[in-house]
Specification:
The protein is of the alpha/beta class. It folds into three domains: 4-105, P-loop containing nucleotide triphosphate hydrolases (Rossmann fold), CATH 3.40.50; 110-172, Helicase, Ruva Protein, domain 3 (Orthogonal Bundle), CATH 1.10.8; 208-325, no CATH class. 56% of the residues lie in helices and 10% in strands. The chain contains 14 helices and seven strands. The protein has helices spanning 14-22, 36-47, 65-77, 110-124, 131-140, 147-158, 166-172, 178-189, 193-205, 211-235, 244-256, 274-284, 289-308, 314-325, and strands at residues 4-8, 30-35, 56-61, 83-88, 102-105, 128-129, 163-164. The protein has a five-stranded parallel sheet, sandwiched between helices. Strands 6-7 form a two-stranded parallel ribbon. The longest helix has 25 residues, at 211-235.
Length: 326
Amino acid sequence: MKHILIAIGNKDTVYDDINELAKRFSDTPKNIILFDENAKGELIKRASSLFFEDNLVFTIIDPEEKTLKEIKSYIELLKGKASVILYFTSGEITKKDYLDADVIVLEKDMEERIKNRVKNLLKKYNKQMTLNAFEIFKEKIRDESVIESELIKLINYTGEKKKIDSKDVTALTSETHQDDLIALFDAFSKKDKKRVLQIIDNLINTMNTPLDAAILIIHGYILRQTRHLLHGKEIEEKIPYGKYSDFVKYFNRWKDTFAIKPFERRHYLPFQNSYYAYKLLAISRQFKKEELLSLLNGLAKIDLGLKRDSISDRRLRLESGLLEIL
Protein backbone atom coordinates (compact mmCIF):
# COMPACT_ATOMS: atom_id res chain seq x y z
CA MET A 1 0.00 0.00 0.00
CA LYS A 2 1.25 3.49 -0.87
CA HIS A 3 2.03 5.82 2.05
CA ILE A 4 -0.18 8.60 0.60
CA LEU A 5 -3.97 8.31 0.45
CA ILE A 6 -6.26 10.86 -1.23
CA ALA A 7 -9.82 10.69 0.11
CA ILE A 8 -12.97 12.51 -1.02
CA GLY A 9 -15.53 12.73 1.77
CA ASN A 10 -17.69 15.47 3.27
CA LYS A 11 -17.45 17.96 6.12
CA ASP A 12 -20.09 16.27 8.29
CA THR A 13 -18.13 13.04 8.65
CA VAL A 14 -14.54 14.23 8.31
CA TYR A 15 -13.27 13.17 11.74
CA ASP A 16 -15.02 9.79 11.71
CA ASP A 17 -13.56 9.20 8.25
CA ILE A 18 -10.05 10.18 9.31
CA ASN A 19 -10.09 7.75 12.23
CA GLU A 20 -11.19 4.92 9.95
CA LEU A 21 -8.82 5.77 7.11
CA ALA A 22 -5.84 5.90 9.48
CA LYS A 23 -6.51 2.28 10.42
CA ARG A 24 -5.63 1.31 6.85
CA PHE A 25 -2.03 2.04 7.82
CA SER A 26 -2.02 0.74 11.40
CA ASP A 27 -4.36 -0.89 13.94
CA THR A 28 -3.22 1.73 16.47
CA PRO A 29 -2.54 4.91 14.48
CA LYS A 30 -1.37 8.15 16.06
CA ASN A 31 -3.33 10.79 14.15
CA ILE A 32 -2.00 14.29 13.55
CA ILE A 33 -4.66 16.45 11.89
CA LEU A 34 -3.51 19.51 9.94
CA PHE A 35 -5.22 22.20 7.90
CA ASP A 36 -3.95 23.95 4.79
CA GLU A 37 -2.64 26.98 6.67
CA ASN A 38 -0.43 25.04 9.10
CA ALA A 39 0.42 21.95 7.05
CA LYS A 40 3.61 23.25 5.45
CA GLY A 41 5.34 24.34 8.64
CA GLU A 42 4.38 21.21 10.56
CA LEU A 43 5.46 18.80 7.82
CA ILE A 44 8.80 20.57 7.31
CA LYS A 45 9.46 20.27 11.04
CA ARG A 46 8.40 16.62 11.19
CA ALA A 47 10.15 15.49 7.99
CA SER A 48 13.47 16.88 9.20
CA SER A 49 13.21 15.14 12.58
CA LEU A 50 15.68 12.36 13.40
CA PHE A 51 13.17 10.44 15.50
CA PHE A 52 9.63 9.34 14.68
CA GLU A 53 6.87 7.82 16.77
CA ASP A 54 5.52 4.52 15.52
CA ASN A 55 2.32 4.48 13.46
CA LEU A 56 2.19 8.22 12.74
CA VAL A 57 -0.52 9.29 10.28
CA PHE A 58 -0.68 12.91 9.09
CA THR A 59 -4.02 14.08 7.72
CA ILE A 60 -4.28 17.39 5.85
CA ILE A 61 -7.85 18.61 5.49
CA ASP A 62 -8.70 20.47 2.26
CA PRO A 63 -5.14 21.27 1.14
CA GLU A 64 -4.91 23.72 -1.74
CA GLU A 65 -3.08 22.75 -4.93
CA LYS A 66 -0.39 25.35 -4.26
CA THR A 67 0.24 23.93 -0.78
CA LEU A 68 0.47 20.35 -2.08
CA LYS A 69 3.11 21.29 -4.62
CA GLU A 70 5.08 23.15 -1.95
CA ILE A 71 5.05 20.22 0.50
CA LYS A 72 5.40 17.40 -2.07
CA SER A 73 9.08 16.81 -1.30
CA TYR A 74 8.44 16.72 2.45
CA ILE A 75 5.61 14.22 2.03
CA GLU A 76 7.97 12.00 0.04
CA LEU A 77 10.58 12.24 2.84
CA LEU A 78 8.03 10.70 5.20
CA LYS A 79 7.91 7.43 3.21
CA GLY A 80 8.80 4.57 5.52
CA LYS A 81 8.41 6.82 8.56
CA ALA A 82 4.79 8.00 8.49
CA SER A 83 1.66 7.91 6.33
CA VAL A 84 -0.23 10.85 4.85
CA ILE A 85 -3.95 11.30 4.16
CA LEU A 86 -5.10 14.20 1.97
CA TYR A 87 -8.78 14.59 2.87
CA PHE A 88 -11.08 16.74 0.73
CA THR A 89 -14.51 17.61 2.13
CA SER A 90 -15.99 18.30 -1.31
CA GLY A 91 -15.26 18.11 -5.01
CA GLU A 92 -14.31 15.35 -7.39
CA ILE A 93 -11.14 13.35 -7.83
CA THR A 94 -8.60 15.27 -9.84
CA LYS A 95 -5.52 13.42 -11.00
CA LYS A 96 -2.37 14.56 -9.24
CA ASP A 97 0.46 13.19 -11.34
CA TYR A 98 3.07 14.66 -9.01
CA LEU A 99 1.91 12.44 -6.11
CA ASP A 100 2.21 8.65 -5.93
CA ALA A 101 -1.03 8.10 -4.04
CA ASP A 102 -3.97 5.75 -3.66
CA VAL A 103 -7.40 7.37 -4.15
CA ILE A 104 -10.72 6.62 -2.47
CA VAL A 105 -14.19 8.18 -2.71
CA LEU A 106 -16.08 7.70 0.56
CA GLU A 107 -19.73 6.79 0.87
CA LYS A 108 -21.84 9.82 1.84
CA ASP A 109 -25.13 8.12 2.69
CA MET A 110 -25.12 7.58 6.47
CA GLU A 111 -27.04 4.30 6.47
CA GLU A 112 -24.76 2.80 3.83
CA ARG A 113 -21.70 3.98 5.75
CA ILE A 114 -22.88 2.29 8.94
CA LYS A 115 -23.87 -0.88 7.07
CA ASN A 116 -20.49 -1.13 5.36
CA ARG A 117 -18.53 -0.59 8.57
CA VAL A 118 -20.57 -3.20 10.44
CA LYS A 119 -20.19 -5.73 7.60
CA ASN A 120 -16.43 -5.23 7.44
CA LEU A 121 -15.99 -5.61 11.19
CA LEU A 122 -18.19 -8.71 11.33
CA LYS A 123 -16.20 -10.27 8.49
CA LYS A 124 -12.93 -9.45 10.27
CA TYR A 125 -14.06 -11.34 13.38
CA ASN A 126 -15.85 -14.13 11.50
CA LYS A 127 -19.28 -13.16 12.81
CA GLN A 128 -22.75 -12.65 11.36
CA MET A 129 -25.68 -10.48 12.44
CA THR A 130 -29.40 -10.89 11.84
CA LEU A 131 -31.19 -8.11 9.96
CA ASN A 132 -33.35 -7.33 13.00
CA ALA A 133 -30.24 -7.11 15.18
CA PHE A 134 -28.62 -4.72 12.71
CA GLU A 135 -31.69 -2.46 12.66
CA ILE A 136 -31.70 -2.24 16.47
CA PHE A 137 -27.94 -1.66 16.53
CA LYS A 138 -28.25 1.11 13.92
CA GLU A 139 -30.99 2.82 15.92
CA LYS A 140 -29.00 2.75 19.15
CA ILE A 141 -25.63 3.71 17.70
CA ARG A 142 -26.29 7.21 16.46
CA ASP A 143 -22.67 8.26 16.10
CA GLU A 144 -20.19 6.63 13.76
CA SER A 145 -17.24 7.26 16.06
CA VAL A 146 -18.34 4.52 18.47
CA ILE A 147 -19.50 1.85 16.02
CA GLU A 148 -16.31 -0.17 16.31
CA SER A 149 -16.07 -0.07 20.11
CA GLU A 150 -19.76 -0.99 20.52
CA LEU A 151 -19.55 -3.79 17.96
CA ILE A 152 -16.39 -5.18 19.61
CA LYS A 153 -18.34 -5.29 22.88
CA LEU A 154 -21.04 -7.30 21.12
CA ILE A 155 -18.50 -9.67 19.58
CA ASN A 156 -16.86 -10.28 22.94
CA TYR A 157 -20.24 -10.64 24.65
CA THR A 158 -21.41 -13.34 22.25
CA GLY A 159 -18.18 -15.35 22.61
CA GLU A 160 -18.19 -18.46 20.41
CA LYS A 161 -21.67 -17.72 19.10
CA LYS A 162 -21.38 -17.07 15.37
CA LYS A 163 -24.56 -15.06 14.79
CA ILE A 164 -25.44 -11.93 16.77
CA ASP A 165 -29.18 -11.59 17.29
CA SER A 166 -31.50 -8.82 18.49
CA LYS A 167 -31.41 -10.01 22.12
CA ASP A 168 -27.63 -9.60 22.18
CA VAL A 169 -27.85 -6.05 20.81
CA THR A 170 -30.62 -4.98 23.18
CA ALA A 171 -28.74 -6.37 26.15
CA LEU A 172 -25.47 -4.65 25.47
CA THR A 173 -25.54 -1.51 23.34
CA SER A 174 -25.85 1.91 24.98
CA GLU A 175 -27.59 5.07 23.88
CA THR A 176 -24.14 6.50 23.04
CA HIS A 177 -23.55 9.80 24.80
CA GLN A 178 -27.13 11.06 24.43
CA ASP A 179 -27.78 11.09 28.19
CA ASP A 180 -24.56 13.06 28.77
CA LEU A 181 -25.58 15.61 26.15
CA ILE A 182 -29.06 15.99 27.65
CA ALA A 183 -27.39 16.53 31.04
CA LEU A 184 -24.95 19.01 29.47
CA PHE A 185 -27.73 21.26 28.22
CA ASP A 186 -29.54 20.92 31.51
CA ALA A 187 -26.34 22.22 33.15
CA PHE A 188 -26.21 25.03 30.55
CA SER A 189 -29.75 26.10 31.40
CA LYS A 190 -28.84 26.23 35.11
CA LYS A 191 -25.53 28.08 34.46
CA ASP A 192 -23.77 25.24 36.31
CA LYS A 193 -20.17 25.70 35.08
CA LYS A 194 -18.72 22.95 37.26
CA ARG A 195 -21.22 20.41 35.96
CA VAL A 196 -20.56 21.48 32.35
CA LEU A 197 -16.83 20.77 32.78
CA GLN A 198 -17.54 17.43 34.50
CA ILE A 199 -19.73 16.27 31.60
CA ILE A 200 -17.18 17.38 28.98
CA ASP A 201 -14.52 15.44 30.88
CA ASN A 202 -16.75 12.35 31.00
CA LEU A 203 -17.46 12.54 27.26
CA ILE A 204 -13.74 12.78 26.50
CA ASN A 205 -12.88 9.85 28.76
CA THR A 206 -15.56 7.55 27.35
CA MET A 207 -14.65 8.10 23.70
CA ASN A 208 -12.47 5.54 22.00
CA THR A 209 -10.59 8.19 20.03
CA PRO A 210 -7.54 10.50 20.41
CA LEU A 211 -8.06 13.66 22.49
CA ASP A 212 -7.78 16.10 19.57
CA ALA A 213 -10.41 14.21 17.56
CA ALA A 214 -12.62 13.76 20.65
CA ILE A 215 -12.71 17.54 21.21
CA LEU A 216 -13.82 18.18 17.62
CA ILE A 217 -16.44 15.41 17.79
CA ILE A 218 -17.85 16.76 21.08
CA HIS A 219 -18.05 20.24 19.58
CA GLY A 220 -19.98 18.72 16.67
CA TYR A 221 -22.33 16.95 19.09
CA ILE A 222 -23.08 20.17 20.97
CA LEU A 223 -23.59 22.13 17.76
CA ARG A 224 -25.99 19.54 16.35
CA GLN A 225 -27.97 19.33 19.56
CA THR A 226 -28.24 23.11 19.77
CA ARG A 227 -29.86 23.03 16.34
CA HIS A 228 -32.22 20.30 17.57
CA LEU A 229 -33.18 22.48 20.54
CA LEU A 230 -33.92 25.39 18.20
CA HIS A 231 -36.13 23.08 16.15
CA GLY A 232 -37.84 22.18 19.42
CA LYS A 233 -38.47 25.85 20.23
CA GLU A 234 -40.29 26.24 16.92
CA ILE A 235 -42.85 23.55 17.70
CA GLU A 236 -42.99 23.29 21.51
CA GLU A 237 -46.31 25.13 21.60
CA LYS A 238 -47.81 22.75 19.03
CA ILE A 239 -46.67 19.52 20.69
CA PRO A 240 -47.88 19.10 24.28
CA TYR A 241 -45.25 17.94 26.73
CA GLY A 242 -46.67 15.47 29.21
CA LYS A 243 -46.88 11.71 28.96
CA TYR A 244 -44.46 10.13 26.52
CA SER A 245 -47.26 8.11 24.88
CA ASP A 246 -49.17 11.31 24.09
CA PHE A 247 -46.03 13.06 22.87
CA VAL A 248 -45.24 10.25 20.38
CA LYS A 249 -48.60 10.67 18.63
CA TYR A 250 -48.06 14.38 18.01
CA PHE A 251 -44.38 13.91 17.19
CA ASN A 252 -45.12 11.28 14.52
CA ARG A 253 -47.80 13.49 12.96
CA TRP A 254 -45.28 16.33 12.79
CA LYS A 255 -42.73 14.07 11.13
CA ASP A 256 -45.29 12.96 8.53
CA THR A 257 -45.86 16.57 7.43
CA PHE A 258 -42.43 16.62 5.77
CA ALA A 259 -42.95 15.55 2.17
CA ILE A 260 -39.22 15.69 1.43
CA LYS A 261 -36.91 13.77 3.73
CA PRO A 262 -33.49 15.44 4.27
CA PHE A 263 -30.33 13.66 3.14
CA GLU A 264 -28.59 14.11 6.51
CA ARG A 265 -31.43 13.25 8.90
CA ARG A 266 -29.31 13.46 12.05
CA HIS A 267 -29.31 17.27 11.75
CA TYR A 268 -33.11 17.55 12.02
CA LEU A 269 -35.13 16.96 15.17
CA PRO A 270 -38.23 15.45 13.45
CA PHE A 271 -36.11 12.53 12.23
CA GLN A 272 -34.55 11.63 15.57
CA ASN A 273 -35.49 8.79 17.89
CA SER A 274 -38.82 9.78 19.49
CA TYR A 275 -37.69 9.29 23.10
CA TYR A 276 -34.57 11.37 22.46
CA ALA A 277 -36.79 14.09 20.95
CA TYR A 278 -39.09 13.85 23.99
CA LYS A 279 -36.18 14.55 26.34
CA LEU A 280 -34.89 17.35 24.09
CA LEU A 281 -38.26 19.11 24.11
CA ALA A 282 -38.12 19.15 27.92
CA ILE A 283 -34.69 20.80 27.75
CA SER A 284 -35.69 23.30 25.03
CA ARG A 285 -38.41 24.65 27.32
CA GLN A 286 -35.70 25.69 29.80
CA PHE A 287 -34.17 28.09 27.25
CA LYS A 288 -35.31 31.24 25.52
CA LYS A 289 -34.86 31.20 21.75
CA GLU A 290 -32.43 34.12 22.03
CA GLU A 291 -30.24 32.11 24.43
CA LEU A 292 -30.00 29.20 21.98
CA LEU A 293 -29.17 31.56 19.10
CA SER A 294 -26.46 33.11 21.26
CA LEU A 295 -25.12 29.62 22.04
CA LEU A 296 -25.11 28.76 18.34
CA ASN A 297 -23.15 31.93 17.57
CA GLY A 298 -20.69 31.15 20.37
CA LEU A 299 -20.17 27.61 19.04
CA ALA A 300 -19.36 29.04 15.61
CA LYS A 301 -16.64 31.20 17.19
CA ILE A 302 -15.28 28.18 19.09
CA ASP A 303 -15.18 26.26 15.82
CA LEU A 304 -12.95 28.92 14.24
CA GLY A 305 -10.68 28.83 17.26
CA LEU A 306 -10.41 25.03 17.23
CA LYS A 307 -9.27 25.10 13.61
CA ARG A 308 -6.62 27.74 14.32
CA ASP A 309 -5.30 26.31 17.60
CA SER A 310 -2.60 23.71 17.98
CA ILE A 311 -3.84 20.24 18.95
CA SER A 312 -2.67 20.65 22.55
CA ASP A 313 -4.80 23.81 23.01
CA ARG A 314 -8.09 22.46 21.69
CA ARG A 315 -9.50 21.20 24.98
CA LEU A 316 -8.80 24.54 26.63
CA ARG A 317 -10.41 26.34 23.69
CA LEU A 318 -13.59 24.24 23.91
CA GLU A 319 -13.97 24.46 27.70
CA SER A 320 -13.11 28.16 28.01
CA GLY A 321 -15.35 28.99 25.02
CA LEU A 322 -18.34 27.20 26.58
CA LEU A 323 -17.78 28.90 29.95
CA GLU A 324 -17.66 32.31 28.24
CA ILE A 325 -21.04 31.61 26.64
CA LEU A 326 -22.46 30.86 30.10
